[in-house]
Amino acid sequence: MSETPRQPPAPPVVKPGREDVDGTTTLERVPQKTEPPRLYQVLLLNDDFTPMEFVVMVLQEFFRHDLDTATQIMLKIHHEGRGVCGVFTKDVAATKVELVLAAARRAGHPLQCIMEAA
To answer: Which of 7, 33, 42, 78 is the most buried (most CB within 10 A)?
Structure first.
């Protein structure tokens, strides 16, 4: 799975310069500062109906956790009511939430998956 393509860099901001003796104007480039994209946690919420095996399968299939890690996360969800499946950019996190919810609906489970700012 790949993330969304990066936007082309914005043109540099040009700061008004000074006028030279011969009437020409010199412009200065001001470097732009960009911030990395915000990250979001994808969480699974506990319920009393979804089988533990299904939760482990979701963690392995959609979040690429190995069996031991998926089992540990599933137990955390079971005991604490929620657990972090992974941290992603907004678009990737939203896609994973939708994929998990669709898989749970297809399987007839009420499993809830949400995302929140990390």
So the answer is: 42
Pairing of β 82-89 and β 25-30:
unpaired
Tell me the one-letter amino acid at 63. Answer: F
Tokens of 114: 């949400």
How many CA atoms lie within 13 Å of 41's alpha carbon, on the beta-carbon side?
10
- 81: helix, coil or strand? coil
pLDDT digits (tens, 9 = 90+) for 35-49: 999 999 999 999 999
Helix or strand (DSSP H, E) at 10: none
For 60-101, what is each residue's pLDDT tens digit? 999 999 999 999 999 999 999 999 999 999 999 999 999 999
Q: Tell me how far apart the alpha carbons of residues 95 and 2 are, in angstroms, rounded to a whole number.
A: 12
Maximum separation of any 2 CA atoms in the chain, in Å:
81
- Give CA–CA dist 118/87, Å, rounded: 7
Q: What is the C-alpha to C-alpha distance for residues 14 and 22, in angstroms, rounded to an integer?
A: 21
Residue 44 · residue 55 · CB < 8 Å: yes
